Amino acid sequence: MSRRDRRRHHDSQETSLALYDDAARDAAARVIARYSTSFGLGTRLLPRAQRAHIRNVYAMVRVADELVDTYRGPDAGALLDGFEAEVHAAMDRGFSADLVAHAFALTAREVGITREQTEPFFASMRMDLVETSHDEDSLALYILGSAEVVGEMCLAVFVNTGRGPRPLDPEVRDGARHLGAAYQKINFLRDLAVDEHELGRAYFPGVSAATLDDARLAELVDECREDMRTAASVLDALPRRARAAVGTTIDIYARLLEQIAQTPARELVARRVRVADPVKAALAVRNLAGRHGRALA
């Protein structure tokens, strides 16, 4: 719907499904604008339709994450169950009274996101309500749902927008999953002390703020680098603007990972490492121009 059409609807106080769709997309766009500079910056490099879809995916994921990380009330589990049920119902019927669920459903139905991705995602969110530590198997399951399938959702947006639901290339899907895993593990490293002291969680098996040493940190950094190398190897399979957007987030996270690698373990658990906003903007410009600053060796 054009800006003129939206204004006409508002001026006449008419309503329509198209107007409601726009309101839902606007709500999703507001969520990512408030919460994420890295992904928000990357989405601005996308074509308009892809940008809207990625915002819709991000908003759904963020609402679920806020339920388990920020609200954490005694009925958080019930609220998460209700949100999952509403998201799935919206995907089935194409409408929800919840604007974020509605926006996500628009995207899911157009690009082919299914319960194959959303059910593992909500299962991982539910783990955050009951699990305080992980072994290797439970961590792998958690990352699958909290990050890898989210990468798969984004890939569906990049390759299926305007074309309709189609199967994803297995090799490119694997790269998308590795990228989601890398981002999640880098976030774990960056937020290790906060996760432990404020949320009562330790994600890496046998690692805590008290036990993390430089040798173990180096091993975890190498794992993240390997995931990012796998993801970068299939980047050329994406459409040009999506390649620039994803390349920007890869470069931002690669820069963050290098800062983590250069920070002694004792300092890492005492302060939050971040990439400055001007650096993020410069990396976006380089990717839009067809250059990148990835250093994943």
From TrEMBL:
One of its GO terms (biological process) is isoprenoid biosynthetic process. It comes from the Bacteria. InterPro entries: Isoprenoid_synthase_dom_sf, Squ/phyt_synthse, Squalene/phytoene_synthase_CS, Trans_IPPS_bact-type. Gene3D superfamilies: Farnesyl Diphosphate Synthase. Pathway: Carotenoid biosynthesis; phytoene biosynthesis. Keywords: Transferase. It holds the Pfam family SQS_PSY. GO terms for molecular function: geranylgeranyl diphosphate synthase activity. This is Phytoene/squalene synthetase.
